[in-house]
């Protein structure tokens, strides 16, 4: 067996060497095991020690290895800021002196980093016109380009690089070519120009909470642009319009808006999620049935396009792009600033939960009753409800925005169909306490947020479960073999006749394709303590979703990209995430990013 195994290893290695890489493809670098020969007369040229690329022979440069950035001597700070401030605070992460001090101002927190690679020049440039990508590779490396354009960066091999390039989902690690750390919009523009000139795919990381690690690229070899320092939260107390940087996290946004004027937007529960990706792909939370999605409060955005230009988008300026980013934002550019309408933070809210122990028949009857209730006008807009199934319990829980008496009246028709709960909890809370109740973490996450899990997740959106689909779903719930891991399934009452989400139609709804969906599901299966996810672990959640999709017409279900599913094929994800909107999205992608500069494995594809 040993000789036979050695033969196949040698055969495979020789086969790889015999393959050739196409122009602009990767051909080398630390850890790379693919083809090293370049096709069509192109030459393999190192951009840094971790990435080499096939480039035209006329544009090749001397192969070189770039020295990694200085390793920090201290671990990243995890101390949260609790009070908004307009005065920059300074957090030193290394003892290496700065060549140029770089400071970013935020109403929540600011940081001066001392381990960036940077230069002494203070030049900034703003592109005012669309341009084409160079057809030949310039001299030097991506590192040289970023440095000459005053873009701070981390290189592979440094502790700072490893920290910033670590994805939320540890099951699928990826390695970028470099991590750009801009503190200004012109630096974002310069980084995009550099990446495009070197034919690198570009990914923007706002909070880094993508289930598929799309902010890192969702694959190796991207230029990652980290937006963590572009994180300001500023409320205009005259207009009540908030201007927010994409690197701000939901907890900081909530605190910033409340502390500056007791205002709010509708958004999700996890305070560590970055506002950028959350908003631009939906943004659901415990106020969405009442107030709509986070993206429904977006009124304007500043976007850096693939040619480095900066454009304003709104319902009246570049409206096609505005429509596209409201549901598929990561595919078209890097949003560097967002403006939101806000609403007064509600100060008296009912936070509730009911626990149940059901038989399979009771579970079937309860889910049917929940669907009927959500589809009726009896379900008040003020009621936000989640149905939760976990390893240890089954619950309905959520928030009602109104009085206790009105809540009791609203919930009574549903409770009468669910049976007697084994326990319940009902409390009156103010806005911040309501958010904190479901945060399960600090509402003021640190700049160097460092939370990771090892997991697989799926989603589903359904308009109406047929009796057959209900039977299949509940049967799987009660009879399928459950893993000895930390798993859960939850269903949010997303749409219906009284939902604010479903009542937004036409262009105002953006490219978000699920307005008609009544139920929004998340399926999540993680490994305790961050161990290795098993190779056969995917069957559990795939089977649960398939129990519904296999017996349901295609026009009755879809999937939610904020719960990105890495198991979807390249032929399916676009249709599942964006349904009827996908052809229009592809056309807009072709207009604004025909070369697919902003790429990940589940991006809107150009025509």
Automatic annotation (TrEMBL):
Keywords, A to Z? Answer: FAD, Flavoprotein, Oxidoreductase, Signal
Q: Which domain of life is it from?
A: Eukaryota
Single GO biological process annotation from the record: carbohydrate metabolic process
Asked if the keyword Oxidoreductase belongs to this entry, the reply reads yes
The UniProt entry, under Gene3D superfamilies, shows: 3.30.465.10, 3.40.462.20
The protein's required cofactors: FAD
> Which molecular-function annotation in GO is an example for this chain?
cellulose binding
Kindly state one GO CC term assigned in the UniProt record.
extracellular region
Looking at the keywords, is Flavoprotein present?
Answer: yes
Identify the InterPro entries for this entry. BBE (IPR012951), CBD (IPR000254), CBD_sf (IPR035971), FAD-bd_PCMH (IPR016166), FAD-bd_PCMH-like_sf (IPR036318), FAD-bd_PCMH_sub2 (IPR016169), FAD-linked_Oxidoreductase (IPR050416), Oxid_FAD_bind_N (IPR006094)
Any matching Pfam family: FAD_binding_4
The UniProt entry's sequence similarity note says:
Belongs to the oxygen-dependent FAD-linked oxidoreductase family.
Q: What is this protein called?
A: Uncharacterized protein
* Native source species: Orbilia oligospora
């Amino acid at each position: 067996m040993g000789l036979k195994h050695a033969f196949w290893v040698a055969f495979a290695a020789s086969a790889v060497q015999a393959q050739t890489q196409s122009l602009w493809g990767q051909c080398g670098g630390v850890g790379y095991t693919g083809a090293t020969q370049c096709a069509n007369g192109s030459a393999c040229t190192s951009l840094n020690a971790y990435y080499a690329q096939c480039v035209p022979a006329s544009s090749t440069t001397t192969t070189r290895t770039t020295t990694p950035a200085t390793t920090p001597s201290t671990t990243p700070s995890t101390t949260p800021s609790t009070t908004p401030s307009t005065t920059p605070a300074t957090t030193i992460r290394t003892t290496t002196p700065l060549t140029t001090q770089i400071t970013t101002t935020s109403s929540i927190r600011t940081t001066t980093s001392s381990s960036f690679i940077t230069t002494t020049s203070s030049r900034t440039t703003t592109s005012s016109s669309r341009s084409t990508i160079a057809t030949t590779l310039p001299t030097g490396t991506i590192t040289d380009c970023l440095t000459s354009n005053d873009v701070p960066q981390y290189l592979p091999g440094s502790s700072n690089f490893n920290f910033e390039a670590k994805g939320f989902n540890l099951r699928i690690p990826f390695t970028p070519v470099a991590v750009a750390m801009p503190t200004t919009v012109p630096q974002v523009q310069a980084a995009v120009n550099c990446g495009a000139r070197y034919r690198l795919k570009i990914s923007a990381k706002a909070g880094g909470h993508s289930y598929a690690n799309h902010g890192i690229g969702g694959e190796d070899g991207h230029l990652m642009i980290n937006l963590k320092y572009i994180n300001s939260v500023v409320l205009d107390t005259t207009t009540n319009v908030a201007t927010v940087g994409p690197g701000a996290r939901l907890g900081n946004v909530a605190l910033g808006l409340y502390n500056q004027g007791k205002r709010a937007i509708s958004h999700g529960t996890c305070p560590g999620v970055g506002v950028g990706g959350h908003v631009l792909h939906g943004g659901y939370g415990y106020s969405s049935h009442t107030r709509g999605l986070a993206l429904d409060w977006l009124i304007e955005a500043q976007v850096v396009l693939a040619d480095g230009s900066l454009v304003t988008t709104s319902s009246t300026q570049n409206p096609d792009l505005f429509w596209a980013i409201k549901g598929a934002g990561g595919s078209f550019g890097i949003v560097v600033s967002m403006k939101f309408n806000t609403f007064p933070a509600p100060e008296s809210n009912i936070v509730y939960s009911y626990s149940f122990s059901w038989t399979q028949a009771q579970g079937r009857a309860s889910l049917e009753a929940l669907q009927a209730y959500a589809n009726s006008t009896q379900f008040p807009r003020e009621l936000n409800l989640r149905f939760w199934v976990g390893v240890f319990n089954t619950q309905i829980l959520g928030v009602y925005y109104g009085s206790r008496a009105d809540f009791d009246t609203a919930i009574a028709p549903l409770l009468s169909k669910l049976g007697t709960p084994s326990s319940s909890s009902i409390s009156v809370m103010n806005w911040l306490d309501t958010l904190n109740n479901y945060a399960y973490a600090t509402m003021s996450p640190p700049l160097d947020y460092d939370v990771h899990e090892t997991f697989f997740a799926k989603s589903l959106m359904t308009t109406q479960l047929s009796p057959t689909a209900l039977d299949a779903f509940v049967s799987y719930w009660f009879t399928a073999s459950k893993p000895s891991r930390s798993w859960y399934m939850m269903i949010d009452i997303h749409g219906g006749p009284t939902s604010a989400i479903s009542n937004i139609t036409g262009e105002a709804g953006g490219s978000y394709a699920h307005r008609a969906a009544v139920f929004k599901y998340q399926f999540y299966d993680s490994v305790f303590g961050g161990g290795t996810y098993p190779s056969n672990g995917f069957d559990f959640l795939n089977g649960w979703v398939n129990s519904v999709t296999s017996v349901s017409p295609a026009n009755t279900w879809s999937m939610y990209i904020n719960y990105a599913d890495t198991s979807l094929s390249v032929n399916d994800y676009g249709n599942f995430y964006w349904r009827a909107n996908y052809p229009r999205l592809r056309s807009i992608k072709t207009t604004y990013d025909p070369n697919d500069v902003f790429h990940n494995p589940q991006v809107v594809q150009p025509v």
